[in-house]
Amino acid sequence: LRSPELRRFAGLSGFQGGDAEWRETYRLCCSDRGRDTTTGLDRAAFAAMLSDTSDSGCYCEDGELIAILKQITSGPRAPVASGGGGATGSGE
Question: Inter-axis angle of helices 3-12 and 62-73, to 10 degrees?
């Protein structure tokens, strides 16, 4: 997942920062997993992030992931507005 795709997930999981905060969050998310921001997260890195309960993770329960999946697959893709939408706390 590159920045736009991960930001969409982040928005659905609670991220509410603006563009500048997202850029830094995405940079840290990639860095924490040894990934480059131009290539983003592969499946393994994304799965690890979702299972990570530390401050640098984005732990999600199965029910949360199912709800996010339903939102993603149930209609037209809504753009994430500047200043809103996205993952949670530090290190997403």
Answer: 120
pLDDT digits (tens, 9 = 90+) for 64-92: 999 999 988 886 655 554 444 444 444 44
Nearest to 87 by CA among 2, 19, 16: 16
Q: Are 11 and 84 in contact (CB under 8 A)?
A: yes
Q: Coil, strand, or helix at residue 4?
A: helix
- Helix intervals (H) in 13-61: 19-32, 43-51
Structure tokens at 71: 């939102």
Structure tokens at 22: 């997202």
Q: Considering all CA atoms of the chain, what is the largest pairwise distance in Å, rounded to the nearest integer?
A: 33
The dihedral built from the CA positions of residue 46, 47, 48 and 49, taken in this order, carries a sign that is positive
pLDDT at 75: 61
